[in-house]
């Protein structure tokens, strides 16, 4: 086992499915809707080999910049030769996990606090 240079080298546990999750992929995975600007995580899945991302992109977070019928284009930061640049990657839709970006949560927080502060406090009977 010396000098292995394959595409999936060193991915024995990375692309393996969790315990009791082998077999057919659930339909909800395919039906997920992605929009431009969504922040997503890439995750390789060993049950489907078509359109699998390279192991470097496994677990990376990126932003959706293009949505087609069968694939999603995301931008991921990649470090190469002590430089960090963005790298466009086109993946099939079932390789992505939606995550809610923290800035959106923090952005609306002062607005919510202001509305709550200006709202009149009502008693038991509404006056």
From TrEMBL:
Extent of the signal sequence: none
Coiled coil (UniProt feature): none
GO terms, biological process: translation
Name used for this protein in its record: 60S ribosomal protein L21
Lineage, opening ranks: Eukaryota, Metazoa, Chordata, Craniata, Vertebrata
Domain of life: Eukaryota
Keyword Translocase: no
Keywords attached to this entry: Ribonucleoprotein, Ribosomal protein
Pfam families tied to this protein: Ribosomal_L21e
The keyword Acetylation appears for this protein: no
Family recorded in the similarity comment: Belongs to the eukaryotic ribosomal protein eL21 family.
The species this protein was found in: Oryctolagus cuniculus (Rabbit)
GO cellular component: ribonucleoprotein complex; ribosome
Family annotation (InterPro entries): Ribosomal_eL21, Ribosomal_eL21_CS, Ribosomal_eL21_sf, Translation_prot_SH3-like_sf
MF GO annotations: structural constituent of ribosome
Gene3D superfamilies named among the record's database cross-references: Ribosomal protein L21
């Amino acid at each position: 086992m010396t000098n292995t240079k394959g595409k999936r080298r060193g991915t024995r546990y990375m692309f393996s499915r969790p315990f009791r999750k082998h077999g057919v992929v659930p339909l909800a995975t395919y039906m997920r809707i992605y929009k431009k600007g969504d922040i997503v995580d890439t995750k390789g899945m060993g049950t489907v080999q078509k359109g699998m991302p390279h192991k470097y992109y496994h677990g990376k977070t990126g932003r959706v910049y293009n949505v087609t019928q069968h694939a999603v284009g995301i931008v991921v930061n990649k470090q190469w030769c002590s430089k960090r640049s963005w790298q466009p990657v086109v993946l099939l839709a079932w390789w992505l996990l939606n995550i809610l970006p923290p800035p959106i949560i923090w952005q609306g927080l002062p607005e919510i606090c202001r509305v709550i502060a200006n709202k009149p406090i009502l008693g038991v009977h509404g006056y």
